[in-house]
C-alpha cells in the first residue's frame, strides 16, 4: 500500500438550465449557501465558471453575460457606480430596485463579467448557466491505498 493520486477531470454539458447557485451547491458539495465560500472554494468556482455564459431571464427581459471571474468579497459588500458617474449603489439594492429581487444568499461572492477596470457583478442565484456551454470541474483526490 502506498500513496496514490487520482485526478478526475470532467467536462459536462448542460441538458437543462441550472441556477449558478444550485450548480455551486451541487458540484462543490455546499449544503448551506448562506455561509461565505472559503478562498479555496471560491478559486475552484472561479476556475470552473471562467469563460462560461450565464443568462438572466426576468419577465420580458433577457441578458446573457460571459463570466470572467468571481469576486473576493460577498455580494452584500459590493458596490458600483451607475452610468450617471455620480451615484454609488450596492449590488443587492440594485437588483432589489431594478428587478424586484431580494437576494437569498448575500454572503456568496458575485460572478464577474465586463472588464477588470469596470467589472459587472452578477448574483449567482439569479443567473442560469447557458444550456449549450461546458463547465470543466477539477477534483483532486489523494488516498492512502493504491487503486
UniProtKB/TrEMBL annotation:
GO terms for molecular function: RNA binding. InterPro entries: PAZ_dom (IPR003100), PAZ_dom_sf (IPR036085). Residues 19-131 form the PAZ domain. It comes from the Eukaryota. Pfam families: PAZ. CDD domains: PAZ_argonaute_like (cd02846). This is PAZ domain-containing protein. It comes from Gossypium barbadense (Sea Island cotton).
Amino acid at each position: 500500500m502506498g500513496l496514490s493520486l487520482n485526478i478526475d477531470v470532467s467536462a459536462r454539458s448542460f441538458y437543462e438550465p441550472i441556477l449558478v447557485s444550485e450548480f455551486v451547491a451541487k458540484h462543490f458539495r455546499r449544503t448551506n449557501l448562506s455561509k461565505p465560500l472559503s478562498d479555496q472554494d471560491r478559486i475552484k468556482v472561479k476556475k470552473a465558471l471562467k469563460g462560461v455564459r450565464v443568462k438572466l431571464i426576468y419577465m420580458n427581459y433577457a441578458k446573457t453575460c460571459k463570466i470572467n471571474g468571481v469576486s473576493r468579497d460577498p455580494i452584500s459588500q459590493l458596490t458600483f457606480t451607475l452610468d450617471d458617474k455620480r451615484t454609488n449603489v450596492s449590488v443587492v439594492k440594485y437588483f432589489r430596485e431594478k428587478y424586484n429581487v431580494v437576494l437569498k444568499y448575500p454572503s456568496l461572492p458575485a460572478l464577474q463579467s465586463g472588464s477588470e477596470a469596470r467589472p459587472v457583478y452578477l448574483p449567482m442565484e439569479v443567473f442560469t448557466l447557458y444550456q449549450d456551454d461546458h463547465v470543466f470541474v477539477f477534483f483532486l483526490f489523494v488516498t492512502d491505498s493504491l487503486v
